[in-house]
Amino acid sequence: MAIEPTTGTTTTTPPARAGWSAGRIALLIVGSVLALLGAGLLAGGCGLLWADQTQRDDDGYLSTPTERLEASSYAIVSEPIDLVEADTSGADWLLSEDVLGDVRVRASDGDLFVGIGPTSDVEDYLQGVEHHRLDDVDFDPFRPRYDATAGGPPAAPPREQDFWVASASGPGEQTVIWNPESGNWSAVLMNADGSPGISADVSVGAEADFLIWLAVGLLAAGSIVLLGAAGLIFLGAREPGAPTAVAVAPVTAAADVASAPTVYPLAVTGDLQPGLSRWLWLVKWLLAIPHYILLALLWVAFSLLTLVAAVAILFTRRYPRGIFDFNVGILRWTWRVWFYSYWANGTDRYPPFTLSESSDHPARLAVVYPEHLNRWLPLVKWLLAIPHLILVGLFVGGWGWGAGDEWGAWGFAGLVGILVLIACVILLFTGRYPPTLFNFALGLDRWTFRVAAYVGLMTDRYPPFRLDMGPHEPTEETTLAMTKDS
Predict the structure, then answer these.
(1) Global pTM exceeds 0.70
(2) Disulfide: which of 55, 262, 271, 291 matches 472 by Cβ 3.0-4.6 Å?
(3) Buried residues in 392-404 as b, exposed as e (16+ CB within 10 A)
């Protein structure tokens, strides 16, 4: 290290870090998506292996829970079971005993008939007969859904028919064992004498001998995909080893950042643009869609690379510098898009598509690289951050989707969005963005990014519970020094 006597600047020779080219970004994104896919394959393989080895009954069947089926008609019939056609080339192996195995149907509670027959013959038998078709089933809680067909009684009891390939009838528990064959099949539940009003406890099981091979295949595929993902992530995140001389901030400013223990290691700043357009905010959601799509992929990469960094911190107490720079770039990109759109609406300048810092952009973010981190904190930071995460959820809102009676989406607006919307409406009618609302929204955004950096393992400093920069936040000078350092 050499100090220039006339300028007071410091020249150092840290390892060179190549810029984030489109190729490196693509490698990390593709690697992260593949890692997610590989983890899913491994999880699926482990789940199937667990089911195959632990969930079989004494007869070797994997069975559904016993559930109640009831109908006021003469029959309950399943949806057609469409197995591979006999003339399907090379597909008969799916129905072999060593792959699919036998299927078992059990029914009890009454004088019952259970049968499996060709769908065409079953439909002919039930033509003009009042019956219920089992259309769908919800399992948690169990609730069958039926499609009712009007009609009269059957011409003859079901056990007198000769088209059943497997059947059982009588009082008590009835068990049907069926070795599947190619074709279309239907299962039928009736009273043995063909009378109306069916009520029975039913379970269905299968030997499913293919399960172990499917589990092994998923585990092997998941391992291969994860190895490929690890290679792509390594190629994207690695740092070149050649040193180079670079100029950094003046000694005094750099020393202030490095030594001041009260400076939080993340700086988020934003300059409100004078003369904002009154109406552009109405369409920014549309203009920002390309950024939203790319950021969705980048945040998948951020999450998975944070897990990689956690393992590295556990063993080395260091956050891999290539991954750190990439994740900071994602935070920086996100902040520029937030500042442009509905988390600040502080500028009409369209965000650049880059992970690098843009010194002349009104939205800036920098994080000081930690030389050493506590190796155990990554295991509990998510727990320590719960109070902050609750508040951040209120600040930025959220959305999701799920299933109840039907699939649907839900969401709620956060405090930041509400404040910015109010400010935008005022801007629309007055041409002026209220500085108080801007500063309040900016403080909430700053709080959110501090928590993101903490949960992202970029610092061990617990985020402060405050909005403004305060006396111990980085100043403009230290922010520039941090930017040069990061």
Answers:
(1) no
(2) 262
(3) beebbeeeeeeee
Domain co-membership, 220 together with 109: no
Q: Could you give the angle at the alpha carbon of 294 between the alpha carbons of 293 and 297, nearest 5°?
A: 95
* Number of domains the chain contains: 3
Q: Which domain holds residue 233?
A: 18-54+211-243
Asked if 405 and 259 sit in the same domain, the reply is yes
Q: Residue 148 belongs to a domain with what CATH number? A: 2.60.120
Same domain, 347 and 377: yes
Which residues in 121-149 are b (16+ Cβ under 10 Å) and which e?
A: bbeebbeebbbbbbeeeeeeeeebebeeb
Q: Which two tokens stand for residue 454?
A: 């903490």
Q: In the beta sheet, which residues pair with residue 411?
A: 399
Shared domain for 407 and 454, answered yes or no, is yes
Contacts of 80 (CB under 8 A, 6+ apart): 119, 184, 185, 186
In a domain, 328, yes or no: yes
- 10 is a domain residue: no
Q: How far apart are CA 356 and CA 10, in angstroms?
A: 23
Q: Mean pLDDT, the chain, as a whole number?
A: 80
Residue type, 422: I
Q: Which residues of the chain have pLDDT under 50?
A: 1-18, 86-95, 241-262, 403-405, 409, 469-486
Same domain, 377 and 472: yes
